[in-house]
Automatic annotation (TrEMBL):
Residues 1-27 are annotated as: Disordered. Residues 1-18 have a biased composition (Polar residues). One of its GO terms (biological process) is protein ubiquitination. PROSITE patterns: ZF_SIAH. This is RING-type E3 ubiquitin transferase. One of its GO terms (molecular function) is ubiquitin protein ligase activity. Keywords: Metal-binding, Transferase, Ubl conjugation pathway, Zinc, Zinc-finger. The keyword Lipid biosynthesis does not apply. Residues 93-156 form the SIAH-type domain. It comes from Microthlaspi erraticum. Its EC number is 2.3.2.27. It comes from the Eukaryota. It catalyses: S-ubiquitinyl-[E2 ubiquitin-conjugating enzyme]-L-cysteine + [acceptor protein]-L-lysine = [E2 ubiquitin-conjugating enzyme]-L-cysteine + N(6)-ubiquitinyl-[acceptor protein]-L-lysine. Belongs to the SINA (Seven in absentia) family.
Length: 280
C-alpha cells in the first residue's frame, strides 16, 4: 500500500496495490499435511475462529475458552481475542475428497471436523442400511442401488413385494410385521412400506431407500384404503422421502404418512392400493 503526495508535500490519497496477474488458474491442486490444519491442543480440525498469541501459536475456537488464565499453553504469552486471519483464510479455501471417494464419489468438500452437507445428505454414494437392520439386526450397509442385491440374496422375499411404476397394485401386510419391502424387476431400487402403531391408530408411510442427492431419482406415491367397501381414504400423490436407514419412529411431519384410526382397522391385516411413479 502506497501514499501518493501532492506537490506541497501533503498526502492526498492512499493507492491500493493491484492484484497480480496470474499465469494460471487461481485454484490449483496440491498436497498439504492435514495435521497442520488441526488444533495442537485437541487435535481436531480447526474451525473458524482461530486465535493466536504474539508468538504466532494458534488454538481453535473450541479450546480457546478453556485456556488457563487466557495464556498460550506453549509460551505463556496472552492469547486474548487475537484472531489468526491468515490461517482462517487458508482453512476456508482447503477442500478434501468426499469420504465416499473410495466408492466412486468425485466431489470435494470443505475440510473440517463436521460432516459436510454433501457427505451427510447429498452424496449419492452415502451408505444405506439394510431395511432389516432393526427387525432382523442385519448390519449390512451399501450404496443405495447395491442394497437391492444384498436383500435378494440374504433376506426372505414376501408376498406382494413386486410392483410396476405407474400401475396401481393391491398390497396386503400385517401391521405387526411393521414393514414390507417393495421392489421392481426393472430397476435395482428398494422402497419400504411401514406401519407404525400408536394408541389411536396406525401410520402408513412409504420411503425410498436412498440418499437425497440431486443425482438420485425422485418418486411419488399414492395410497388408498377402503373401509367396509364404502368409504375410501386416500393419501397423496405425495413426493416420497429418501432415507438412509428405516426408522420406526412416528413421523414428525404428519402429512408424510397416512393415518388410519382404530375404527377403520380390521384386525392385524391391512389391504391398501398403492401406486408409485417416478417424478420427472
Amino acid at each position: 500500500m502506497k501514499r501518493s503526495s501532492s506537490e506541497n508535500g501533503e498526502c492526498s490519497r492512499i493507492t491500493q496495490p493491484q492484484k497480480r496477474n496470474r499465469t494460471r488458474s487461481g485454484t490449483v491442486e496440491g498436497r498439504v499435511d492435514l495435521d497442520r490444519l488441526d488444533c495442537p491442543i485437541c487435535y481436531q480440525p480447526f474451525t473458524v475462529p482461530i486465535f493466536q498469541c504474539d508468538n504466532g501459536h494458534v488454538v481453535c475456537g473450541v479450546c480457546r475458552p478453556n485456556l488457563n488464565l487466557d495464556k498460550c499453553p506453549f509460551c505463556a504469552l496472552p492469547i486474548g481475542n487475537n484472531r489468526c486471519r491468515a490461517m482462517e483464510s487458508i482453512l476456508e479455501s482447503v477442500t478434501v475428497p468426499c469420504r465416499n471417494a473410495h466408492l466412486g464419489c468425485t466431489k470435494y468438500v470443505p475440510y473440517g471436523r463436521e460432516e459436510s452437507n454433501h457427505e451427510k445428505e447429498h452424496c449419492k454414494f452415502s451408505q444405506c442400511s439394510c431395511p432389516e437392520a432393526e427387525l432382523e439386526h442385519c448390519k449390512h450397509t451399501g450404496v443405495y442401488n447395491e442394497i437391492y442385491f444384498h436383500y435378494m440374496v440374504y433376506h426372505l422375499l414376501k408376498d406382494d413385494c413386486f410392483f410396476t411404476f405407474g400401475e396401481s397394485k393391491k398390497v396386503r401386510m400385517l401391521i405387526s410385521e411393521k414393514s414390507l419391502v417393495l421392489k421392481t424387476l426393472l430397476r435395482s431400487l428398494m422402497f419400504v412400506m411401514q406401519c407404525i402403531r400408536e394408541p389411536n391408530g396406525v401410520y402408513v408411510m412409504i420411503s425410498f431407500l436412498a440418499p437425497t442427492s440431486p443425482e438420485v431419482e425422485k418418486f411419488s406415491y399414492r395410497l388408498s384404503y377402503s373401509y367396509n367397501g364404502e368409504e375410501t381414504h386416500t393419501h397423496g400423490p405425495l413426493e416420497m422421502k429418501n432415507v438412509l436407514k428405516v426408522s420406526f419412529q412416528i413421523p414428525q411431519e404428519k402429512e408424510d404418512a397416512m393415518f388410519l384410526p382404530n375404527r377403520f382397522l380390521r384386525g392385524d391385516e391391512l389391504e391398501l392400493e398403492l401406486c408409485i411413479k417416478e417424478v420427472v
